[in-house]
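Retry 2 of 3 after timeout on previous attempt. Resubmitting C-alpha cells to design endpoint.
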C-alpha cells in the first residue's frame, strides 16, 4: 500500500499564544507543553492507524482545536475528530466547498446574515453576530444556511487564540417568522444542534439574543431543550436592544446599529477579508475522507445514539450496504 499524502503533514508545533492566553489554557484546559506534545503524538498515531480515516489534516493547529475543546481528554478529542470527518462527508452538500466567493455565500455575507466583529472583547473573545431575519427562506436553502455557518466557524477555529478564549454570540431575531422555522424539520434540528455541539470544537462562552418575538416562544423553548445545561446557563434572551442594554450587555463590540462604534457595513468588509484569506485552507478540507462503509447506517445518517456508541466495528451491520451517503437535502434524514 502506497504512502498516504495527508491533507497536511504533522509539524513541530511552536506555541503562538500570548503569555496571558497560555496561562488561561493551563488553568482552564490543562494545557502545557508536555500535555500538548504527548496528546498531539497520540492523536496523529491514532489517525494513521485508524482504518476508517482515509485522509485528514495532521497539523497541530487543526488537531488542537479538538484537544482544547475537550480539555486534552484524548479519547474524547479522537471521537470528536472522527464524528467531524464523518458528518462533513455525509452532509457534503452543506459542509463541502466552503467558498465565500460563491454567489449565494457572497450575498448572505453582504446582507449581514452572519459575521464576526473585528477585534476582541475585554476577555479576548471574538464576537459572532447573527441576523437570521435577513435570510430569505423562500430564496435560500437549509444547505445554504449550513454552509455560511460552516465557513464562518471554520475560519474562526483556525485561530489558536479563539480555540482557547472561545466566542460570544449575538443574535437579532427581528424579521424571523414561521417560514424560517420550516427550513428544517424538528428531527433535522435535533440532529444538527446535537451533532453541532458535540462535533464543532468551539467554546461558546456567552449567547445573547434580542428581538425574540413572543409568537416564536415554542420554537425557542424547543431549541433550548436541545442544548446542554452548560450552554443553557450562558444564554440570555431579551425582547429588545434596550432591555439588553439595561441588563448591562456589552455593546462595545457590536455594530454601530446595535450600540457599538463601527458601522455594520465596515465590519462585514473587514470580515470578508479574513474569509478570503482563509479560503484556500477551507477548500483543502474537501480532501478529508472517511471510509463510509465502515460505519453503521445510523451513524452515516448522523443518528446521535449511533455516534454515542463509539465507532467500533461492532457498529457495522450486515444490512448496511444500502446507503453510503446522503445527497440532495436534509429532508431524507430520519431520526432515532
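Retry 2 succeeded. Sequence:
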Amino acid at each position: 500500500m502506497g504512502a498516504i499524502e495527508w491533507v497536511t503533514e504533522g509539524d513541530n508545533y511552536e506555541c503562538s499564544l500570548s503569555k496571558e492566553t497560555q496561562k488561561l489554557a493551563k488553568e482552564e484546559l490543562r494545557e502545557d507543553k508536555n500535555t500538548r506534545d504527548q496528546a498531539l503524538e497520540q492523536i496523529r498515531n491514532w489517525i494513521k492507524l485508524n482504518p476508517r480515516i482515509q485522509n485528514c489534516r495532521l497539523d497541530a493547529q487543526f488537531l488542537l482545536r479538538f484537544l482544547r475543546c475537550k480539555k486534552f481528554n484524548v479519547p474524547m478529542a479522537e471521537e470528536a475528530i472522527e464524528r467531524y470527518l464523518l458528518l462533513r462527508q455525509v452532509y457534503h452538500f452543506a459542509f463541502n466547498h466552503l467558498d465565500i466567493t460563491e454567489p449565494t455565500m457572497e450575498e448572505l455575507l453582504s446582507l449581514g446574515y452572519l459575521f464576526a466583529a473585528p477585534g476582541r472583547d475585554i476577555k479576548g473573545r471574538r464576537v459572532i453576530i447573527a441576523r437570521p431575519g435577513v435570510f430569505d427562506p423562500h430564496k435560500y436553502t437549509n444547505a445554504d444556511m449550513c454552509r455560511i455557518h460552516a465557513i464562518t466557524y471554520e475560519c474562526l477555529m483556525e485561530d489558536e487564540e479563539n480555540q482557547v478564549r472561545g466566542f460570544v454570540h449575538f443574535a437579532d431575531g427581528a424579521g424571523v417568522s414561521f417560514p424560517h422555522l420550516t427550513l428544517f424539520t424538528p428531527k433535522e434540528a435535533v440532529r444538527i444542534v446535537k451533532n453541532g455541539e458535540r462535533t464543532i470544537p468551539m467554546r461558546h462562552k456567552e449567547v445573547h439574543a434580542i428581538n425574540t418575538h413572543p409568537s416564536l416562544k415554542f420554537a425557542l423553548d424547543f431549541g433550548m431543550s436541545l442544548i446542554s445545561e452548560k450552554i443553557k446557563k450562558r444564554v440570555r434572551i431579551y425582547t429588545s436592544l434596550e432591555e439588553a442594554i439595561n441588563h448591562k450587555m456589552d455593546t462595545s463590540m457590536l455594530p454601530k446599529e446595535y450600540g457599538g462604534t463601527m458601522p455594520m457595513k465596515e465590519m462585514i468588509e473587514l470580515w470578508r477579508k479574513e474569509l478570503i484569506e482563509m479560503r484556500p485552507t477551507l477548500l483543502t478540507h474537501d480532501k478529508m475522507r472517511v471510509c463510509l462503509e465502515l460505519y453503521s447506517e445510523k451513524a452515516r445518517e448522523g443518528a446521535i445514539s449511533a455516534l454515542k456508541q463509539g465507532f467500533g466495528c461492532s457498529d457495522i451491520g450486515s444490512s448496511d450496504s444500502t446507503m453510503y451517503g446522503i445527497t440532495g437535502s436534509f429532508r431524507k434524514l430520519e431520526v432515532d
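Attempt log closed. The radius of gyration is 20 Å.
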